[in-house]
Amino acid sequence: MTEAYIVDALRTPTGRRKGGLSHVHAIDLGAHALKALVERNAIPADEYDDVIFGCVDTIGSQAGDIARTSWLAAGLPLNVPGTTVDRQCGSSQQALHFAAQAVMSGTQDVIAVGGVQTMTQIPIASAMLAGQPLGFSDPFSGSKGWQARFGDAPVNQFYAAQRIADHWGISRADMEVFALESHRRALAAIEAGYFEREIVPLEGVSRDETPRQTTLVKMAELEPVAPEFPSITAAVSSQTCDASAAMLVVSDAALKRYKLTPRARIHHISVCGDDPIWHLRAPIPATAAALKKAGMSLDQIDLVEINEAFASVAMAWQQETGYSHDRINVNGGAIALGHPLGATGVRLMTGLLHELERRQGRFGLQTMCEGGGQANVTIIERLG
């Protein structure tokens, strides 16, 4: 079996909701990352085998197989196909896994992988609620099979975030301290120029718009998202935003053919399911299963990126694994840098790769909670 390598990784800035990227068509947002990826690497554009993109809520400007339409909108060759993946928040991480599997199987050699989401134009859950019959509050309502198995228990991210906080004894004040540190780390990374190599500016936006100068006092003043979720506020939740990201994944043969220098090797890929009512807990069992299958321990992992969908998700993972917060989301997470759903997986991996290089670390692990009670885990090995 051949190995799968990452040759390049880049992203747009994260544009805050109604911010500098909010007017950019979703197709053009994806096209910008793809065009930059092709231009930065010495592979003829017509020799790419596929484009695999993550995107959630594929309606409106995000409909019509946005992997394919973004490639074409970038002015790239007609012969290259594209496909769009929806594994909810893990969509582009799964896109990376599909690309790695295609390369490892020997069926493809050069794949552009990434994701795109414009959450200003297409609010979260737009597709989920579109076309629901009158009186249906969510897509699970009315399913006899679903209700027979899970009853009327809410499949709700706020419910899950609160349930996790309660189960692991994480207070609202604890989460606010965690969230403040996410912003501090992101702002420090921006000022230090850590993101400059990975960001391709767009529409005059050259740095992430989402990190905030805030305080614990300001956070404490916010109202919960709903009375039944007293610990969950906007301050301890990921930010909606607009962004795209792209990576180049290739085979051994492509490395030799195009004289490329690999930056990382895909060491492990897996995905795990969990109880959908817990919804956001899956990174914990997924990490344990991935490490077992890879024959590794967390002691061998230099850096971890776990998506900060909510502070309680990352904090419960840390509490359960005992992994040091000093090596988790070291340049801030989604609370500060945003969670552009379909693009987040590759955005996280882009940051993980660059930070491993900066620190000269060897192994990095990425995981994230996903709708339906799922979680992907990717372990990469930095090369060079």
Structural summary, described in words:
- The chain is an alpha/beta fold.
- It contains 13 helices and 10 strands.
- Strands 1, 2, 3, 4, 5, 6, 7, 8, 9 and 10 form a 10-stranded mixed sheet that branches.
- β9 and β10 (374-382) form a beta hairpin.
- α1 crosses α2 and α6 runs parallel beside α11.
- The longest helix has 21 residues, at 172-192.
- The chain starts with a strand and ends with a strand.
- Mean pLDDT is 95; it is low at 133-137.
- Residues 261-382 form the Thiolase C-terminal domain.
Strand and helix layout:
Layout: E1 5-11, E2 15-16, H1 26-39, E3 50-54, H2 66-73, E4 82-85, H3 91-105, E5 110-118, H4 126-129, H5 144-150, H6 157-167, H7 172-192, H8 216-220, E6 241-250, H9 252-258, E7 264-273, H10 283-294, E8 303-306, H11 311-321, H12 334-337, H13 344-359, E9 363-370, E10 374-382
Parallel strand pairs: 3-4, 3-5, 8-9
Antiparallel strand pairs: 1-6, 1-7, 2-6, 5-6, 7-10, 9-10
Short description:
The chain has 384 residues and is α/β, with parallel strands linked by helices. Helix content is 35%, strand content 18%. Strands 1, 2, 3, 4, 5, 6, 7, 8, 9 and 10 form a ten-stranded mixed sheet that branches.
